[in-house]
């Protein structure tokens, strides 16, 4: 077969696949939200031709918005990629995700519920008075990465939004003494990339998407920490409340946060490694 025939066959296959995706059922999503997601992908090059993406689907409003946003991107993007969703099952009593599987089936989203024993082993692996939420978050991420490796995915997508990254930024300052946020994309230690396609969307936009479409969502009741006799974390809730107060006083504060995150003068802080010094000799170890 000549090269021209090969290219023609590939083009035909991609066209047929694009038509098939355009004919599948989708949920309405606001043009404003889709524009934000499209601009984010164009700016940070999160998704491209041939990507195989695994989406962490908890069943909350954010991850549900993410899978449906990717459905819209598939229908209209000038490139082809595939994705599927994975829900991590902790192994808790009466833990069911049947409605989530049915929802994905209705909208032609491939979905897997990945069984783990995270809840069982947590009894012996968490120190007293430590953060159960952080523990379960790390364990859930590890299980998702394992599934991604087993399935040959080159990217893992999570549903973090802009409110999340602002909250994380200030929490790191207030409680950890570091300046750190949530990157739109980074390479994991396991070789694939983690992407956050919703990272410039506001949480209110995702909540409106769920409400407007009457979606059944999973909330904090699905977190294993709710079954533990431990104190619940307050840092994020306190930070969220503080930020809400700032936004009430200044409706453009999150616009300023976004602008700040893109204009970083890192040589103005108390970190000598970020300064350009030509007035002193820099000693080097031989």
Write the layout of secondary structure elements.
Elements: H1 3-23, H2 31-44, E1 52-56, H3 61-76, E2 82-89, H4 98-106, E3 111-115, H5 118-125, H6 132-151, E4 155-157, H7 162-176, E5 185-187, E6 193-195, H8 203-212, H9 235-249, H10 253-261
Parallel strand pairs: 1-2, 1-4, 2-3, 4-6
Antiparallel strand pairs: 5-6
Helix pairs in contact: 1-3, 3-8, 7-9
What does the model show?
With 286 residues, the chain is α/β, with parallel strands linked by helices. The chain has a single domain, classed as 3-Layer(aba) Sandwich (Rossmann fold), CATH 3.40.50. The protein is 48% helix and 9% strand. It is built from ten helices and six strands, in the order ααβαβαβααβαββααα. Helix 4 links the parallel strand 2 and strand 3.
Short description:
The protein is 48% helix and 9% strand. By secondary structure, the protein is an alpha/beta fold.
Structural descriptors:
single chain; 286 residues; alpha/beta; Rossmann fold; 6 strands; 48% helix; globular
Q: What is the H level of CATH, i.e. the homologous superfamily?
A: HUPs
| Uncertain spans | none
Count up the helices: 10
Q: Give the CATH architecture.
A: 3-Layer(aba) Sandwich
Anisotropy-based shape: globular
H-E string: HHEHEHEHHEHEEHHH
Sheet with the most strands: spatial strand order: 3-2-1-4-6-5
- Strand proportion, as a percent range, falls in 5-15%
CATH class: Alpha Beta
| Separation of the first and last Cα atoms | 60 Å
* Secondary structure tally: strands: 6
CATH topology: Rossmann fold
* Derived structural class: alpha/beta
Mean pLDDT score, rounded?
A: 88
Determine the fraction of residues in helical runs and give it as a percent range: 40-55%
Number of folding domains? Answer: 1
